[in-house]
Specification:
Blueprint lengths: L13 H4 L30 H21 L4 H4 L16 H7 L12 H16 L9 H10 L12 H42 L1
Helix pairs in contact: 2-7, 5-6, 5-7, 6-7
Length: about 200
């Protein structure tokens, strides 16, 4: 496999991005559609690695919206901060690492306003983590987030909605992949226990 020479969102970041999720999947849900809410919404308490992973994920989402979401440079302006490409802050650390060549930004660096939106979205996601089943999850999570997030960005081309839609689409995929890994691990343990029990007979 050829190593990339510049930063690119085409590379697989799953092992980096999945690390910031700390999920408990032990509680099983009943059939039906639970009502998502913000009653349990808490301020995120992320360590430096989690913040950096969330920043990188937000950058990917903004990159995708700018490339495929039919938005203009004017509305992207509020959500992007290119000056952070040369910042020494810890929150940009993973994105800088993924650039491969220091000082030559090819990836997307989100503004403080964009990160406020994504941090609110992540808080909404975690507050409703055990209710994530049913129809139109992305729309329901996005609509809930809009009721509590900042309203200080430009409204043209519905960029905030597109940004949140992309974030929740990716976030649910990460959530599902991690859940699948846990379920496979539990299935393997059960199989090993059954084989051990059979060997004793």
């Amino acid at each position: 496999m050829k190593c990339p020479s510049i930063g690119s969102y085409l590379e697989d970041d799953s092992t980096f991005l999945a690390d910031y999720m700390q999920c408990d999947f032990q509680e099983q849900q009943e059939d039906g559609e639970d009502q998502l809410n913000i009653s349990g919404l808490l301020e995120l308490d992320l360590n430096k690695q989690e913040e950096s992973s969330l920043f990188h994920l937000a950058g990917y989402c903004l990159f995708s919206v700018r490339k495929h979401g039919r938005v203009c440079d004017n509305c992207v302006l509020d959500l992007e901060d290119k000056s952070k490409a040369v910042s020494s802050g810890h929150i940009e650390a993973l994105t800088r690492l993924k650039e491969f060549i220091p000082g030559t930004p090819h990836l997307t660096y989100c503004s403080d306003k964009a990160m406020e939106i994504i941090q609110t979205a992540e808080a909404v996601f975690r507050a409703n983590e055990k209710k994530l089943h049913g129809n139109k999850l992305v729309n329901r999570l996005r609509q809930l987030t809009v009721t509590v997030c900042s309203d200080e960005i430009k409204k043209c081309h519905e960029i905030r909605d597109k940004f949140l839609t992309k974030f929740f689409t990716v976030r649910l995929r990460i959530h599902a992949n991690k859940l699948n890994t846990i379920l496979k691990s539990e299935k393997q343990k059960k199989k090993e226990l059954e084989e051990t029990a059979m060997a004793r007979w």
